[in-house]
Each structure stands twice: as C-alpha cells, then as structure tokens.
Amino acid sequence: MEKQNSYSHILKYTSLFGGVQVLSILVGLVRNKLVALILGPMGMGLLALFSSTIKLVGDSTNLGLSISAVRNMSGAYDCGDHEHLLRSISVFRHWSLLTSLFGMLVCIVLSPLLSSWTFSFGDHTLHFVLLAPVVALTTFSTGELAILKATRRLRDIAENSVYAMLVTLFVSVPIYYFFGYKGIVPSLLLVILLQTVIVMRYSLRAYPFRLNFSRALLGEGCGFLKLGVAFVIAGMAGSGVEMAIRAYISNVDGVDTVGLYNAAYVMIFTYVGTVFTAMETDYYPRLSSISKLGREFNLTVNKQIEVSLHLVSPMLVFFILAMPVLLPLLYSGKFLPVLPMMQVAALAMYARAIFLPIEYIALSRGDSKRFLCIELVSDVLLLTMAILGYSRCGLLGMGVGMTIASVLEVFVAVGFCRVAYGYKLSMAQLKIIFVHATIGVLTSLLSFVDNVWVYVSVGALLFALDLAYTLSIMRRHVDIDIVNRIKRKFVRRS
C-alpha cells in the first residue's frame, strides 16, 4: 500500500490519464470551436439543454451501480479471488442491463413533462422519445467502464477514452454542418452508440458477457443497491441543479444566455476538471481497498489532495490569464460576455481539488447516508449561490456565487468527515492550499486590470511563482519515492 500511496504512483496514473485528458481537451476544443461556429450560442444552448436533461434521467434511473459495484468488484480483485470476481461481474452486468432498459422506458414515458420543464418554447416531446436510447446506452457503457476500473485495466480505459473522443469529433461535427439544429438529436444517438461499441470491445475481451437471468443472481445484486440508491439520489440532485440553473437562465434571459453559460461551464468544470479523472479511475479503488481508518487512510486522502492541487493550480493560473485570448479563439467573439464569469468561477476548481478526495471517503466506506448528506448540502449551496449571484450581477455574479459555494462545500466536507471518520487535513496540506489559493485569487483579481503591460508582467510573475512552488515540492517527494524504491530492492536481495 505504501507504493500505491507514493507520489510516483499517483503521478504515474494521473499523468497517464492527464495525457489522455490533454488530448481530450484539444479534441474537445476543436469540436467546440466548430460547433460554436456552426450552431452559434442558441445551438449550443439547445445542445446543453438536451444533454443536461438526458443526464438527469440517466442519473435518476441507473441506481448508482457503476459506483457501488466498483467498490465490490475491486475488493474481490485485490483479494485475488477470481471466481468471486467473475460472479460479481456477472451479477453487476445483469443489473446494468435492467437499469439501462428502465432508464429508456422512463425517458419515453416522461418525455412530455421533460419537454415542458426544460423548454419555454415549442413541443420537444418527440425529441426526448428519440433520445431515450441515449439514456440506456450511456448507463450500459458506464457499467462496462466500471468493470475496467474495478479490475485496474487502466491502459484499456485510456485507449477507450481516446477512441471515444475521436468518434465524438468526427461524427458530430459533420452532422451539425449538414443538418444544423436538426442534427443535434441524431448526433447524440450515433455518438453514444459508437462509444458503447468501443468500450464493449475492451470489457468483453477481458470478461466475456454471459446472460443467465435468475432470481438468485438478481438477488445477489441487492448488495449494490444500498450505496447505489444514495448515489442515484445524489446524481439526481446534482443533475437537477445543473438543469435548474440552465432552465432558470433560459426562462429569465433566453437560450442564447444558456449557450454562454454552457461555454463557461465546459471550459472550467469539464476541461480543467479533467485533471481529476484519475480520482475515480485509480484513487477511489485504492481508497476502498484500505480496510481501516487511521494514519494510512488519512495519508492516502491528503496525498491525493496535495498532488491534485499541484497539478491544477498552474493550469488554473494560466487558464485565467489566457482566457481573453482563448475564449474567442476556441468559440467566437460572440461568447466574450461570459469572460468575467469564467475568470472568477475558475477559482472554484481549487476548492474542487480539495473537496473531491474528501468526498470519496464516504463512498469508499460504503456509507450511503453520510455521502448523500454531503452531496445534498453541496447541491443546495451551489443552486442557492448561483441563482442569487445571477439575480444580483448576471453571469459575473453567478461566477462569484459558484466559487463561494465551492469554498463552503470544502468546510462542510472537512467538518463532516472529521467527526464521522476522524479525517484531518495536515499542516503541510493547509500550507499548500494557502499558497496556491492566494496566487489563484491574485490572478483572478488581476483579470480586472485594464493596463495590458501590468496584466502581462504581473500575470507572468504569478504563473512563474506558482509553477516553481509546485515543481520544488513535487521534485522533492518524487526523489524520496525513488530512493525508497531502491532501498526496498536492496533489502530484498540481501
């Protein structure tokens, strides 16, 4: 476990998925630029509304199996019990198939309501009926990906991610080009179908699919449901908040503003947030495999927070400084009104780097009630602060509100996990948080300075300081990891 908690291990897998995510970002940037030029803010808004609504239906019907099952299957995998692992995978797949079909049925039945709730104009019932298979395929493909995560097939996951993003680019953009708004629904359908085929290529090669429905087999899956149901409620709340924010903006200011908001959301929470991908893929199974709370458990969480901050902070500083150039370059000049929001809301990612590793504590313990409590409080904070900020200062106010909500989430999660699990942030982590957050806040404040020379010179200095601080700490820890590894080899030989 020491090896798994080392900086070298965390950096290795964060770098693996970080490299994939960098490629994903580049492909996503090209795709979003083309889609923005083809569809414009209104088309981006329609795409965001369809996507967020479908995500809400999927999160509400998948029973959270992809998260709860990872904990169960990874336990069997770590114990080396191949027979139990195969049985767990079989049980999980049967439940995954059932929840996929259930999600599709729910989407069809509720399509008239989804249309009236999501849009303030027109009847989009047929669109949601046609999008019902997207719910089923998303749930099923996520389940197959969960099997790869639980069994540590990290390279397969990385390859799958690359192929999935290329499919998204080369399928969706031509459809939008030739069909415009009418191509949104067919594009979503075709993309998820091809992505499902790709992930199944890896999962079936490792663990062939064998259908054998029986009451006993399905009964075994009830063990997944306790944590899964809590995850569903949390997912519903999270997706509901995203949908509610977009619906609120749509009803107050129109779909065009939704497109602006979605551009900001994608660039901040999707692109920058990709650095956290390794958490669910590598960190969560590692944390789940630690049987007892205590020093080792705390160390695992704190090291993940530390590495996440070191990786995300220089990226955020550069991101905030370069945004006046990146936004029109990656989208178009029509999206410039959302620039102030982005340069403030980016600070929320510092809080996310702390919050997410702590949030996984409850998941790794299978503690459904405490996990749900943390999630619901976070969702209420986000919805309240975002809408309050928007009502006061428009998109800029929403950015401020989202950042404040994220900071409050950290205090809630730390306090909750301190009482429930004895978790504590060390002084070393607090110092790192203070340094990175201070540089981030100064960079965000600098974005409101009109003098170009001051902006560029001070911005370059802040970026250099943050990067130097990150490299000095990470180099020291990685060197220690290498020394310890050499010592272990000599001990084995002797």
From TrEMBL:
Topology class, membrane: Multi-pass membrane protein
Predominant place of localization: membrane
Domain of life: Bacteria
Sequence intervals crossing the membrane: 12-30, 36-57, 95-114, 126-148, 160-179, 185-204, 216-238, 258-279, 311-331, 337-358, 370-390, 396-421, 428-446, 452-471
Entries under InterPro entries matching the protein: Poly_Biosynth_Transport (IPR050833)
Matching Pfam families: Polysacc_synt_3
Gene Ontology CC annotation, any one: plasma membrane
RNA-binding keyword on record: no
Localization (cell): Cell membrane
Keyword terms, alphabetized: Cell membrane, Membrane, Transmembrane, Transmembrane helix
Keyword Membrane tagged: yes
Entry protein name: Polysaccharide biosynthesis protein
